[in-house]
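Problem 12. The chain below contains 266 residues. Write out its predicted structure in token notation.
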Amino acid sequence: MLDEETQQPEDLNEAEETTEETTEETSEEAAGNADTAEATSEDGGEEAAEQPTEGRQRRDRATARGGRSGDAFLEAPTEPPPSPRLYEQFKNEIIPAMVREFNYSNSMEVPRLQKIVLNIGVGEALTNGRAIEAATRDLTIISGQKPVVTLARKSIAGFKLREGNPIGTAVTLRGPRMYHFLDRLVNTALPRIRDFRGLARRGLDGRGNYTIGIREQIIFPEIDYNDIDKIRGLQVTIATTAKNDVEAIRLLEMYGMPFIKDTVEA
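Solution.
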């Protein structure tokens, strides 16, 4: 019994010493791990500061490519675009000629172009939903400007038409686009009409506006015959500031409109 009693304290002391040693070793390992973590974090922070992230590198490369490839397209023009040829002709030739011919007291009295309206009526849009899209595409190619879709103003039972149905497309040209279109119409499109013998003078409305009816849109060289779905006609209205039809006819003749000569003038 005495031996057992004397041995118990010794075992307890050994257990306490072993526990203390284990605790010291664990604390030393934890401190070492903390130091290693701090060193790693410092190194990683320096590397992260030195090397950009993958997303940033990707954005930098994309920006560099965009800068290299976009310089040619986004470069500002060094010279302004030239003014329309017909506008220069109007200032240099038409104004002096009409002042002498009509005895205007001021050059501002000379009639001039106000706008050109292109219109395509698409009655088949009531049964064919893609007809409006095709007509809009053709008119966009011809005019170089996005047209608007015209809607029915009232319902007509005989035509199975309801108010608000899309029945056509139209575009209004002003400024340089108006002069460019008139130049292409007179010098390129009208000569391509089959059996063309000139324009009739009865298209005037008495207030200086002239309307032309074109049966086929393919007379414009911009239209590819293989890309259209159907032959469609269009209406071209040239609005001027002329006070009567005589002045309007003379103005359009000076622009080069090929009117029929053997008809009675308005």
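Discussion. The radius of gyration is 42 Å. Students who got a different answer should revisit the alignment rule from Section 12.3.
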